Amino acid sequence: MLRVYLDNNATTPVLPDVMEAMRPYFGEHFGNASSIHHHGQETRAAVERARESVAALLGCRASEIVFTSGGTESDNLAIFGLAQSGGHVITSTIEHHAVLNACKHLAAKGCEVTYIPVDGRGFVETEDVKRAIRSNTKLISIMLANNETGGVQPVAEIGRIAAEADIYFHTDAVQAAGKVAIDVNKIECDLLTISGHKIHGPQGVGALYVRKGTQLEPMLYGGRHERSRRAGTENVPGIVGFGKAAELGIAGFELGDDRKMAAARDRLERELLEIEATGLNGEGAPRVPNTTNIYFDGIDGEALVIALDLKGLAVSTGAACSSGAIEPSHVLTAMGLRPERARASIRFSLGKQNTAEDVDFALSLVPETVSRLRELNPVYRTVVSK
Ligand SMILES: Cc1ncc(COP(=O)(O)O)c(C=O)c1O
């Protein structure tokens, strides 16, 4: 059976060159990067080369990169590393749960949290961020690109506001890395999160950019790994693969991968929007090139995902962890979608491995599957005429 994967915001396949770069570090190069003998020196050198590559992707110094176990840990380290009880944190209503639930935990420990709302396009108003600042505000954490809609926030403006107010600024760039060029100095952020498996690297590895001079309280206590910012023996094969994926990400911009991806996404989107009673979620917002989120009124999104999967097409209703949950997406409802429309929404997200034929395959399946599911829904006509 032909299988096409258009759920790259959940995870991306490891590219062959990444696999090849990692392979020796599962075998012959097995040393602990903290050991002083030959074996340790070999893996230490590989970790430091990967650090240079990840730093190059973000426009920072290698010493400002802290390797972690992924996006979730990096988000948590940024938040818990800077905010404590008695302080105040500003975030948005459409963040990933790695940020939202960390903030919820902070609130339970006595730290105040302000959630900035978004407009219908999923956009944070920078004036709202400015107004939310208080004398005890320690941190602003607003994501660069949203995982469900791909919408890109005005992070450079927020970074300027934070810098002027002398407040730390963290941005979750997990869904932006490799898709749009990132320069931490243009964003003026103090912390920035990325994850290996969203850029065609392996799962279980990520990084937090920590601007030089930022006093971060560690979450893990142990050895002096990662300049005492993250204790624990480094995941050498994972870090090497992450470094290779970062290199390929940089090369991809030179090859115009982002433009090609946007063209494929735009064709998919244009043709899907020709189906009756559909619409684009987040229309009018700047977006990363690989994502489109579309509502199909009168459809249950979960049912559509399952029906398409049975025919070989993998897509998603949004955040992977929400699959199976009855709650509609917190991102789409924050953008003002009524719950039925949020539940009728599907995310299509492309990766570097996708071809024009993959888009053709999706276009050969989605319209007929949508109309079959609508035929099974006796109230469909009533729903669309509302
Ligand atoms: C925006 C965003 N932040 C954080 C994460 C968590 O990253 P990880 O899966 O590496 O823990 C994800 C994963 O979906 C994400 O999309």
Q: Over all CA atoms, what is the radius of gyration? A: 21 Å
Q: What are the distinct ligands in this entry?
A: pyridoxal-5'-phosphate
| End-to-end separation | 39 Å
Number of helices: 15
Q: SSE order in H/E notation?
A: EHHEHEHEHEHEHEEHHHEEHEHHEHH
Largest sheet: 7 strands, mixed
Overall average pLDDT: 95
Silhouette:
globular
Low-confidence segments: none
Note down, in words, how this protein is organized:
- This protein has 386 residues and is an alpha/beta fold.
- Helices cover 41% and strands 13% of the residues.
- It has 15 helices and 12 strands.
- The protein has helices at residues 16-22, 38-58, 71-82, 97-108, 126-132, 155-164, 184-187, 225-228, 236-255, 257-272, 301-310, 330-334, 339-343, 356-375, 380-385, and strands at 4-5, 65-68, 88-92, 112-116, 137-141, 168-172, 191-195, 206-210, 278-280, 291-296, 313-314, 345-349.
- Strand 3, helix 4 (97-108) and strand 4 (112-116) form a beta-alpha-beta unit.
- Helix 2 runs parallel beside helix 9 and helix 3 packs parallel to helix 4 (97-108).
- The longest helix has 21 residues, at 38-58.
- The chain is globular and about 70 Å long.
- The relative contact order is 0.16.
- The model has no long low-confidence stretch (mean pLDDT 95).
- Bound molecules: pyridoxal-5'-phosphate.
What would the keywords be for this entry?
15 helices; 7-stranded mixed beta sheet; single chain; 12 strands; alpha/beta; binds pyridoxal-5'-phosphate; 3-stranded antiparallel beta sheet; globular; 386 residues
